[in-house]
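Backbone description:
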Amino acid sequence: MALPKASVLLVLFAATALLYIGIIYIDQPVSNIHYGVEVAEGQYGVICNDCNKYCYTSPYNKKMVPLPEEELHQIGCEKRLPQALIIGVKKSGTTALKHFLSFHPQLASPVDEVHYFDNRYFMGIDWYISQMPYALRNQTVLEKTPRYFVWADAPERASKDLASDLRMIVVLRDPIPRAVSDFVHIQFKDNLKKIAENGGKPVKQIVLPLTAELKKVRDKQKVFDDIHNKAIGSSFYDVVDSFEESVIDPDGNVKGHNALVDTGIYVKYLRRWYEKFPRDQILVMDGLDLIKNPYKAMKSVEEFLGLNSHFTEKHFYFDEEKHFFCLALPIKACMSASKGRTHPEVSEEVMAKLREFYKPYDQELEELTGQTFSWVQRDY
């Protein structure tokens, strides 16, 4: 029996609509389907104007669950070596920097620090690539491990394994509060271990897939790393109950060999990176900018990495409860509660000794970089 003319038209309309939807679903980037974000076709692939996790099931999800393999291939997502590194310095604002940058649509970065160029180099380059996020061709892959800055062999390893145009970011701050923050962080981690040993919440650990052969390679590397790090004074931590006793010896002298103090001799370690890379490939930032004016800091990083301008002043707001800047757009996002811990009071006598200790190194740092830093004391 023939269908009424109206029914035929309805069926044709429905079929056309389904075909059109199917074409859109196949041709459009998965990010456009899942998140409703604005996308465009750029010279090197899809450009997402509103998110940076479009190879994953959620644009703002720390778990970063990747899309199915077929969809990853469809939109050109792949894992590759990083083109940029945040190499340090520990407790100087690198986490805040990476937190903000993780929302730039042209950047992709691992959630956790990989530690490849320091104590996991034995795992090999293929393993390192496997730890990178999926990224589109037009995205810059960025990895952050602050320990690279002070690791003896990290500059040589990075120069050998990564592209010659690698970009590196160093964040520096006043070395005295940096040392105090490092001290508090170590005590915090030690307390977590004690709680775990007494039946509390287990400490998060990354378990590496080690074969018997890899264990041999690891042990051999550790021997050489210990020797090389000891030679430049970057590996020894001497942390006791109080900060003062940790940085001042019984004779009243600064424990310059202690990594709490030694890490703050920035000029010593920056020279080692300058020996392996052109200076214009290393951005040296004053961490105070991240604290006082994150917008200004982000603009300098965008320019340095050759990224499109993305951040505006409206992207940031000051959290009165946490006492530091947080992200306001595209979502409200603050760093974890582990940031902004209470620090112990340090006596003026100890502060004076540390200021005197760091003074010549800080002056050398300004001479080496041609920059001025907010904490440096000057005689003029």
